Automatic annotation (TrEMBL):
InterPro entries: Methyltransf_11, SAM-dependent_MTases_sf, UbiG_MeTrfase. The gene is COQ3. GO terms for cellular component: mitochondrion. Keywords: Methyltransferase, S-adenosyl-L-methionine, Transferase, Ubiquinone biosynthesis. It comes from Lonchura striata (white-rumped munia). Residues 91-184 form the Methyltransferase type domain. GO terms for biological process: methylation. GO terms for molecular function: 3-demethylubiquinol 3-O-methyltransferase activity; polyprenyldihydroxybenzoate methyltransferase activity. PANTHER family: METHYLTRANSFERASE (PTHR43464), UBIQUINONE BIOSYNTHESIS O-METHYLTRANSFERASE, MITOCHONDRIAL (PTHR43464:SF19). The keyword Zinc does not apply. Pfam families: Methyltransf_11. This is Hexaprenyldihydroxybenzoate methyltransferase, mitochondrial. The lineage of its organism: Eukaryota, Metazoa, Chordata, Craniata, Vertebrata.
Amino acid sequence: MKSSSTLPASLTEMKSNMFTVKRPFSTSHSSVDSKEMKKFQLLAHKWWDEEGEYAALHSMNDIRVPFIRDTLLSMSSNYHLGNPLSGIKILDVGCGGGLLSEPLGRLGASVTGIDPVEDNIRTADQHKSFDPVLAKRIQYKSSSLEEIVEESMETFDVIVASEVVEHVADLETFIKCCSQVLKKK
């Protein structure tokens, strides 16, 4: 095994940019990448500009929302007319400004959106406030996935991490944390 002094500069840089989260009974690192957080911090106010920085994510909803809905409906016999995802608890990891959380909430799902960037959560909360139906269905938390695992015994039927893994510093930790908050069938 190579020492960190012989690691390529990019890997050494990646390791130095990883947040270390101190948790009781755990020595793991966080999957949150500090460089990515800084980047999204600067763009937090632009989430709902359909022609701006996040235009591609807005247009992807035309495909990913029906895909998620149809996949979930194919696995369930409980169909609720008008609210097809009613009764389904979704964790939207890296929710940003709520671009995916909101349409899933409008389909009846109970959505918890988490993002480590507080300004993203403020943007999501502010936008959610324009639709009173969403106030009951969506809650946002400024939190990492690891913090959700450590702080909560809550589990979810579905975990969505759309356009997130490419921004994760420690994919193995990220996946382990996802499995810990996913309901066991």
